[in-house]
Amino acid sequence: MPDQNVSVADPAVVKRAVGAAAIGNITEWYDFGVYGYLTTTISKVFFTDLSGPVATIATFGLFAVSFLIRPFGGLFFGPLSDRIGRKRVLSLTVVLMALGTFAIGVVPGYEAIGIAAPLLVLFARLVQGVSTGGEYGSAMTFIAEYAPDRRRGFLGSWLEFGTLTGYAFGATIATVLTAVLTEDQLLSWGWRIPFLIALPIGLVGLYLRLRLEETPAFANYVSGEGKQRGSAGQELRTIFSRYWPAMLLCAGLVLAWNVTNYMLTSYLPTYLTDTLPGHGEDGVGETAAQVLQIVVLVLLMVVVTFLGRLSDRFGRRRIVMAGCLGLVVLSLPAVLLLRVGGNVATFAGLAVMGLTLVCFSSTLPSTLPAMFPTHIRAGALSIAFNISVSLFGGTTSTVMGALVAGTGDLNWPAYYLIAAGVVGAICIYLTRESAGRPLQGSPAIVSPEELTGSRR
C-alpha cells in the first residue's frame, strides 16, 4: 500500500489533464496571433471613417482593453477556482474565450451598422479579456496539481507549448490568407475565417476538460480542511495580508517573462517593419518579418519541453536565472542585430531574444504555482499574474513606441529588457527551489514507476 501522504499519478489521466489545460492557451494565443497579424485589415473594417494611423491606434486600443480588464477576471475567477474547483472554472473560461474571439468574426463592419460595429468588438474583447484573466492561473494550477513532483517542470512546459502553437497557428492562417486573397476578398469576408475557427477550438477544449475529474490536491483539500473554507472576500484578505511577499516575487517573475514575451510577439514586428525604416535603417519587409517570427516560434516549440525537463533535473531557479542573465547580457547585441537588417541578422536577433524567453516559458508554469498553498493557489496566482501582465506585459508596445519616439534611441527595447532581467534575477534569487518537492499544502505525488522503484 502507498503511504497515505503520497498520491500516485495515473499517467493517462495526467496526459489528458495536460492536453486539456494546454488547449486553453492555444485558444488564447490563437486570438492574439490572428488579431495582431490582421490589425491593418481590422482597422479598415471597423474604423472606416478614420485615417490609417488613427484607425490602427484605435484597433490596438481595442486589443489593449482585453489586457486592462484581465486583473478583474483574475480577481473573480481565481478565488472562484479555489472555491468550486479548477475544472469548473477552466470549462467556463475556455468557452468564454472562444466565444469572445468567434464573436468578432460575425460582427458586421462599420459600413453596415456604423458605430455599433466597434462597440460590439469592444464587448467581445471585454469578454475575452475577463475570461483570459481567469484562465492562465487556473491552468497552471491544474497541471501543477496533477503532475508528479519530479516531472512537474516537463509537464508544465506543455502549457507554453500550447501558447506557442496557438500563436504560430493564428499567425500562419492570417499570413496565408493575406498572401492568397486579394485585398477586396480579405476585407469583405476573408478576415472573418480565422476568428470563426476559434469556436470549434474552444469546444474541443471544453470536451477535454469535462472528461477530467478535479485535481487530487483540490479534492484532498475539499475533503479535509476545505470543508471550513470561508468566503471569497476572506480569501482575498488572506492573500493580500499573509502572502504579499510571495505575490510580489510572483509578479516580478511574471514581469521579466511577459515583457520579453510581448516585446518579441507584439512590439518587434512593428519595430522591424515601421520603426527602423522610419529612422533611416533597413529593417525587413512585412512578410519577411512575419515569416521569421513564425520560424522562431517553431524553434521555441522544439526547445520549450526540453528545458522543462531540464528544470526537473537541475532545478527551476537555474533555468530562470539563465534567462534573466541572458536578458541582461544579450539584449543589446540582439537589438543591434535587428538594426543591421536583412533576413539573416534579423533571424539571429529574434532567435537570441526567443531563447531567453523560453527559459521563462519552460519553467515558470511549474515554478509559480509552487509559491502558494492549495487553498489560495489559483486565486493568488491569477491575481499576481494578471496585474503584472496588465501593468508591464500588455503595455510593452505602447511604452516602447513612446520611448523610441520621444528619445530617438532605437536601443530602448534592449534597455527595457535589461531592466526586466534585473528584476527577474532578484526575484528568482529570493524564490525557494521547488523542483522535485510537493506543492505547499498537498501530499507528494509520484508516478507509478517511482512507486515501483521505491519498493525494490
Automatic annotation (TrEMBL):
Describe its membrane topology.
Multi-pass membrane protein
Q: Which GO terms describe its molecular function?
A: symporter activity
Q: Is-annotated flag, keyword Manganese?
A: no
Q: Pfam families per the record?
A: MFS_1
Q: Where is the Major facilitator superfamily (MFS) profile domain?
A: 17-436
Q: Taking the first listed entry, what is the main subcellular location of this protein, grouped into a coarse class?
A: membrane
- Bilayer-crossing residues are 54-77, 89-107, 113-133, 154-177, 189-208, 246-268, 288-307, 319-338, 344-364, 376-394, 414-431
Alphabetized, the UniProt keywords read: Cell membrane, Membrane, Symport, Transmembrane, Transmembrane helix, Transport
- UniProt key word Transcription: no
Q: Write out the annotated subcellular location.
A: Cell membrane
* Any one annotated GO CC term: plasma membrane
Q: From what superkingdom does this record's organism come? A: Bacteria
Write out the function statement from the record.
Answer: May be a proton symporter involved in the uptake of osmolytes such as proline and glycine betaine.
Designated name of the protein: Putative proline/betaine transporter
Per the UniProt record, the source organism is Amycolatopsis thermoflava
Which lineage? Bacteria, Bacillati, Actinomycetota, Actinomycetes, Pseudonocardiales
